[in-house]
Amino acid sequence: MTTAANTAPIVSAAASPKKDDGGWQWWGTLLVAPYLVVFVVFVLYPVGYGFWLGHNIESYVEIFHDPIFLRAAVNTVLFLLIAVNLKMFVALLLSGFFAIPRWWIRILGLLFILPWAVPSIPTILSFRFMLNPEWGVINQLYFNLTFEDGPNWLNDPILAMSLAMVVHIWKSLPFWTLILLAGRLAIAKELYEAASIDGASNAQKFAHITWPSMRQLYVTCTILSMFFTLGDFNSVYLLTGGGPADLTHVLATLGIRYIRLDRVDLAMASIMCALPVMLPMMVYMMRRLSK
Fold first, then answer.
1. Which of 19, 21, 198, 288 has its CA 20 to 30 A from that of 116?
2. Does residue 271 sit in helix, strand or coil?
3. DSSP string, 125-152
4. Which of 182, 209, 200 is nearest to 99 (CA)?
5. CA-CA distance, 288 to 281, in Å (whole number)?
């Protein structure tokens, strides 16, 4: 009798948590359901539809025989290698400048974020007007200094591509500078004070304190920036329109060119060609974030 009386509450206590867990699971599923619906409608369906449009192997064969696609692929790689790394390196340097506790540097910081805060269309189009060879302000200054006509900036493929990278860096540099600045400010000041007592120089502080503390953040930001750059349509299309002679297209703008030619299959195939670059970066990124 004693054993039965002691066993009953134990069984009852063991059964009650299972009932509660089931209730929490039901509520959890109900709360997650709207997110799942949005994820399926706005993520899975568009991506799956894009795969379906770009599944034809003949489309890939056709674009690989298109010299404009090959040029766009090379331009995309150059954009990733040059523009992204130069932007992140400058952002790292500027984050150190804006970390200096001076009132006038804080005012400069407010002005510095303006290019990122202003919408892309008016700012990039203003760049295009400034580079106009006939009445643009840059060529007017060039003429005043040299008494010669300035170059046709956007009619030279190398100059036009370089300027597209400059616009891309100028537009997104404030955002990445702010991210790296937040990383710098998170480093304990006691480490710098101890290094100063030991007589360490600024370069030694950067090499032994700042960079080891920010390396993970810097690499993560660089990978994220590559994702954003692959999808950056504005910097090239609004400045050069892919010209001259379709020589400054990147994969993001080449898809628009194919759509304007009523070749949606080629547009999706050209965009899907970026997946071999994106997937390894996504896997690497997820592995880093899961640690």
1. 288
2. helix
3. HHHHHHT-TTT-HHHHHHHHHHSSPPP-
4. 182
5. 10
Other C-beta atoms within 10 Å of 119: how many? 8
Structure tokens at 178: 């702010």
- 198 in helix, strand or coil? coil
Query: How distant is the alpha carbon of residue 24 from its chain centre?
Result: 38
Q: Spell out the residues 6+ positions from residue 265 whose beta carbon is closer than 8 angstroms to its own.
A: 53, 54, 56, 59
Which pTM does this prediction carry? 0.80
Instruction: State the helix-helix crossing angle for 211-230 and 157-185, rounded to 10 degrees.
Output: 140
* pLDDT tens digits for range 192-247: 999 999 888 989 999 999 999 999 899 989 999 998 888 888 889 989 988 888 89
Rounded Cα–Cα distance for residues 86 and 144 (Å): 31
For residues 229, 231, 234 and 236, what is the CA-based torsion angle, rounded to 10 degrees?
70
Cα–Cα nearest to 130, from 169, 163, 173, 174: 163
Q: Other C-beta atoms within 10 Å of 285: how many?
A: 17
pLDDT 10s digits, 87-134: 999 999 999 999 998 889 888 888 888 888 888 888 888 888 898 888
| Residue for token pair 């150190």 | 96
